């Protein structure tokens, strides 16, 4: 009996130590991965900067201004029909951040107004043609509460709704680089509120969810096609002006040499009467 009692106590002790170990390990793991709001570093009042850090090193960083256009129902004046209104608002700079980093999957969760709004952006890596590795946004989810009256006024049947994308593949960027785009990028999400379309727009963007080499520092940039096209449109008049200027210089140079060559040649009289004595 004594040996059995000893074994029971020992088992209980080991179990207790195991529980404490799991709790401590969980706390440590949670402490190793944290989100930081760096929006105060931006001079743009509309831009937010969020970072996810793991083991004291930045593993995901996003910098953008964002706005939402969310349709919702209100009761018409006749008290019977429903009218669709639009709530328009921006992503606040004082939002709370959570995130998760991985080698091929990562995500960031941005919440505000006591979780009345939660934006979740999911990233993934994949190999494409010729073995080129890229990362992309693979999913966007937005949770919003129409009972939050600062944006949803007189909402009919208020409550929480979730808007999500399906089979998303946007902001495709070569691995190891950050995506940069000043132009607006718009994503449409389908809401659980009667399949309404929620518009999520980002602009003045720089994002990198993988392979950040230096803490709080983006890697080399990959410009979006829209920015590349706009840059080309800006410099095209300058290029044409340079080409035209060179063409004028070349023509003037050729004309100058032509005058020098013809100046030393004997001139033949044009009046035929001058040839009578020849």
UniProtKB/TrEMBL annotation:
It holds the Pfam family Lamp2-like_luminal. It is a single-pass type I membrane protein. Its main location: other. InterPro entries: Lamp2-like_luminal, Lysosome-assoc_membr_glycop. Keywords: Cell membrane, Cell projection, Cytoplasmic vesicle, Endosome, Glycoprotein, Membrane, Signal, Synapse, Transmembrane, Transmembrane helix. The keyword Transmembrane helix applies. Residues 47-212 form the Lysosome-associated membrane glycoprotein 2-like luminal domain. GO terms for cellular component: dendrite; early endosome membrane; endoplasmic reticulum-Golgi intermediate compartment membrane; growth cone membrane; late endosome membrane; lysosomal membrane; recycling endosome; synaptic vesicle membrane. The chain crosses the membrane at residues 235-257. This is Lysosome-associated membrane glycoprotein 5.
